[in-house]
Write a structure and sequence with these properties.
alpha/beta; 21 helices; five-stranded parallel beta sheet; single chain; globular; 558 residues
Amino acid sequence: MTDNPVVDPTMTPAWEALDGRADAFDPDLRAWFGADPNRATRWTIDGADLHVDFSKNLIDEGVLADLLALAEQTGVYDLRDRMFAGEHINVTEDRAVLHTALRRPATDELTVDGQDAIADVHEVLNEVYDFAERVRSGEWTGITGKPVETVVNVGIGGSDLGPVMAYEALKPFVQDGLECRFISNIDPTDAGETTKDLDPETTLVIVASKTFTTLETITNAKVVRDWFLGALRDRGIVIDEATEKGAIAKHFVAVSTALDKVAEFGIDPNNAFGFWSWVGGRYSVDSAVGTSLAIAIGPDGFAEFLEGFNAMDVHFATAKPEENLPILMGMLNVWYSNFLGADTHAVLPYSQYLHRFPAYLQQLTMESNGKSVRRDGAPVTYETGEVFWGEPGTNGQHAFYQLIHQGTRMVPADFIAFANPAWPLKDGEADMHELFLSNFLAQTKALAFGKTSDEVRAEGTPEAIVSARVFTGNRPTTSIMAPALTPRVLGELIALYEHITFVQGAVWGIDSFDQWGVELGKVLAKQILPAIEGDSAALDAQDASTKALIEYYRANRK
């Protein structure tokens, strides 16, 4: 613990200053913009390919100065540098935190725990690229000589959320004739629906589990294997143990470091791609966990994806704090959650391709920073973590924006949009993307500036309902734009939020890289399963509520 000193943020001069500012804070975005014609320019920062407008946030120069001082006083910059250097900043697991090494150029050097991490990364990356190219070219065929048409990724958590989000985001870059599907939920519906119309002769299954012991993943992998072999038996293709083994070898690969368990499952260990203990699951989409994506968009596309990550890493590591996107966004989140009372944070991509991005961020942010104990083992005495959520615009406008605009809770929101669409469609002569962007711009404008009672009356609104149509404004938003949603830009966006998450965790003095909170439920599930299956002793060992629910299930299961 002494190698990872923790500063109680509430004991710093900057925290005291921010507390004082919050008590007297009376933001007025209308007045601020009116008094400063250059506010938008002064509060807009470019990093890599991202163009970020902070001007509609509830922030002024004094708040910014104190936030950056808080980052300094809590050791954010020092911890950042130690992370990039490969020090063991994941204290509860005594591990380095080196997802940034996954996207560094092969010419870089970094020795971690006696290993050349960059060389190791590129060795696996080259194996993934070689395999992806063989699948894409048709060189890799199934047991009957047919090329792969569908890749099924079986994983959960980071082994699912990252690949599926990135695949959905980059569909315009997927090779024609290839499709990826994803199975994660242990609910049998997931595996059943995903495989029901597949041709086993043209299906490749990727089982992604670092330890190859994750209950949901291995259970689903066995179910898919049973479906696959059963279908081939029905066709007379698998007839004995030898043909079964050959079929598995041609249609199943693994992303894992547990080669013994991979072999026990029936997968050829030569068809397993590894990664390292210093890669957390929610930070692993740019590792071999992204093999399905590398197949879909190709090695060149995946390399561009990694270049985007690295561009944001370099920006985070080198840009001055006042021009550093992750530091500014992370510290703004601290301002809202610790000083202005915000409990949630909305991420609203104005891109249908990013429809899984908020779900991806839920794991990244809440599994990382949903902690109540500091790195030194002491309980925290302040709020940590935020509830991240969102949906694509304009769908969200017709669902939950009412609360953001006129509700009693402040919900800081990040709006994401792109200048160029993948589909430049028109409604007659009207450019649909421009209609779409008009909504993106209108929402942030309305949230910032609102509508006064006098403006409502001027529209001829009856006095009895004037108050219902007033918008208070001063609802904070950050606007993130880029030229287009490309593999590189997607990498930049993911890395941006990785580092935002890091900044917040560093201020709060917590370990953002473990996830012990997900373990207890797994352990209890294994204890409860025998009770569900009919073990009376296991049933009697349960609490009254759990026992009653199991009894209801057993009485109603047909």
